[in-house]
Every structure is written in structure tokens, then in C-alpha cells.
Amino acid sequence: MRTPLHLLLLLLAALVLPVGLGTVTAAAAFDDLETPRSDGVTATPAPAPHDPAKPTAVVVVGDRGAVTSDVLAPYEVLASTGAVNLYTAAPSRHPVPLVGGLDLVPDYTFDEVDRLLGEDAPDVVVVPALPDVGESTADPVTDWLRRAPARGSLLLGVCSGSAVLASAGLLDGRTATSHWFRLDGFEDRHPAVRWVRGTRYVDDGDVVTTAGILSGVDGTLHVVERLLGPDAAARAADATGWPHYHRGTASAMAQASLAPADAVVGVNTAFRWDRPTTGVLLTDGVGEIELASAFDTYAQSLAVRPVAVGSGPVRSRHGLTFVPRADPAAAELDRLVVPGADAARRHAADRYADLDPVYLHHDPGFPFDGALLDLARTTDVATARWSAKVLEYPVDRLDLTGPAWPWTPALRPFGLAVLGVLVALGLLRLRTSTVTKGARSGHSGTGPPADSVVP
């Protein structure tokens, strides 16, 4: 009877430290993804003057932020056409955190967009994944979106932005897609939607939805085809360096699912206690996709903690306003990376030479190539492949080099389990020794025990 009990206690002891410490570490890792700034610093955006002769596109963000690439990739694709009025809009105009801690100052509030357009409606409304979808804090977004179809807007739901549209009731009875990791849950929560898999986007008339994160590039190029024609879409694909554009149709995509190799994200989330703090230097003129590649690649890996650094607010290539969270010279950084091909050409981080800055985009290619190559070199290949899978970005043509696996974090739960068992064995031995000593002291008299029978 005692042996099974002891085995059960040892099993629990083996689990308590890995589970307990892993849960704390994982909670901190996820909190870092969407932490809002608390210093009250802001900046004034400067959107381009409105041209009534051009179609208008609005990229929505919530007060609690959005996924970085869901916002910035469609924004740059649309901006690169040069043929649309393009704005970001939110319920209020304070810096909102994009995933990884990049703070965007929206161009307008929803009310300001309505006043700017008057009787007209945006031709296109881009809806990214929001961290608070389904919560009351997202109500200002969904309330504004519900008016869009009636006004004639084309809705583009990027990644889990389809869940934002579904929560607003705008996908009922429609066909849609979303990120592979979320689809099962969305099917349960929104059964009135016909969810499909294995495609980068679904066109359902006045609503287009895309699969995960960078599939939003394909969905946006499709919207450009509808709005401006296929030649404009081809030029936008060339301008942004997107290598997977297929005119008139979505490129083929195998439906992803969790695989044994994806255990790396669990290791990184729960047992990479020494996640390096990587400063991402914000510079004027940086491309929006270049910026997204730094923050989303590292943040989605859950192996690196990116933080936006710089000397003050910056303006991106197509006019978005971002506010850094720290000065590189004062922040406690393990590394400094610099996104942007232009920043690499002009050595924009030379004054921070003591931090040995790494220019992510000194080589040509789609911006996410440089970020994924750096992630593989500085963490491991398995982590880089996980980030690419989450991003839905094919990496077969990339030569990802670096350690194969995060061996040190992977061994930590086993070390904790052994430590827990040793502590439990020590406590059991101490308890057994105490009981034995007590029994001996209770029988140390010269006579027989009181309840014994003397023949």
C-alpha cells in the first residue's frame, strides 16, 4: 500500500517544479507580447492630404492594439500602389501596442474618418487580429465595422481578423478562412460561418478573409487586383519584394497543423528563462514590412523579447508614426538590431557601435528573410522554423543555419524534475527517520510495553 503511494508522491514531485516554474515563465512571455506602454508619451501623426479622386482604404486597429504584420503588411502593399488614400484608424488616437511592443499612433479616430469622408465610405477596410476580440474593449471596433457593409465597403479580414468580423456578425452564412492554429476554435465559437482550410485567402464578394499573418499579403494583393487591376497588384508585389504572388488566384498552400517539431515553442515559452532583450532601432523612412519583420519574427518565436528603441518618434516610409519605448544608450539590451535596407546603407546605428548593431536588411530579399536568418543564427533553426510556420511564410529556399534545437532550455524541465524527486526523497527519508526514532524512544524503558502480554 505504501509503495504505490510513494510512487505517486514522487511523480507529483517530478511535475511540480517544471509545471510551476514553466507556467510562470509562459505567462510572462505572453504578457510581453501585448504590454501597453504606461508613460503617457504620444506623438502627432501627419497623414497625407485626402484626394477625393482616389479610392480610400482604412486599416483598423483597436485600443488594445493588433498583430504587427496584420497591420503593416497590408498597409505597405496598399501604399506601394500610390493610388489610394490610406489611413490607420482606431477608437482613440493614443499609441496602440502592436505585437512585440511596437507603438503605432493612428492617423485618425473612427469619428474623424467619418467626418473626413462625409457621405462617402471607405472603399476598403482592413481588419487585423485584435488581442481583445470578443471582449467589451473591442466593441468600438466591431460597432464601427457593422456600418461598413451597408455603406459599400469591401472588408478584408487578415489572419484572426476574420474572428473580429465574425464577432460582429459579418461572416454569418459566408465562407471564410483564418490562421491554421485558430480555425478549430473559431468553428466552435462561430458555427454560422463556413470555415475553409488550405488556402491563403477566400473571396466572398464584399468580404475577403486570409489565412495566417503573411497570407494577408496575398489577400491584400487580391484586393488591389479588384480595386486597381492585376497590373497594379503585380507592381505592388514587386515593390514589396513578395515572391509568392499569383495573378488572379491564391497561391497553393498545404494546411498546417501541429507537429512534434513544434514542441520547440513550448520549450521556449516555459523554459527559456534567459530570453534576450533585443532592441529594435526605429529609424525614419523604414519600410513598414521591414519593421514588421523584426517585431513579428522575434515575438512569434517566444524566444526573444523585442523592444522598440530610438531617440524619438519616427515616420515610416509611407507616413506612419511610431514611438519608441526606450533610448538604446540607456536601455538594458542584450542585442541591437536595425531593420531597413536604407538604414543599412547609411549605417544609421553607427552612434551605437558599442552595442554591435546588426542590420537585418543589408541583403536583398523579402524583409522577413533577414529576420528569420538572424533568428536561426542567434537562437536555433527549430525556433526559426516555428516562427515561419506561424507567419505562414515558406522558408524552403532559405539556408537557415544555427544550432538545431534549444538544448539548454529543453533540458531544464528534466533537471527540475530530478530536483523535485530528490527533494521528495529527502523529505520522505527525514519523515521515516523521525518516525523510527519516535518508535524507539517510546520503547526504551526496561519493562515490557504496557499493552504486552507476559506469559
TrEMBL record:
The stretch of residues making up the signal peptide is: 1-28
Region of interest: Disordered: 35-54
Q: List, alphabetically, the InterPro entries matched.
A: Class_I_gatase-like, DJ-1/PfpI, INH-QAR
Q: Cite the entry's keywords alphabetically.
A: Signal
**Does Ubl conjugation count among this protein's keywords?**
no
Name the domain of life this protein comes from.
Answer: Bacteria
In this protein, which residues make up the domain named DJ-1/PfpI?
A: 58-222
**Name used for this protein in its record:** DJ-1/PfpI family protein
Protein's organism: Umezawaea endophytica
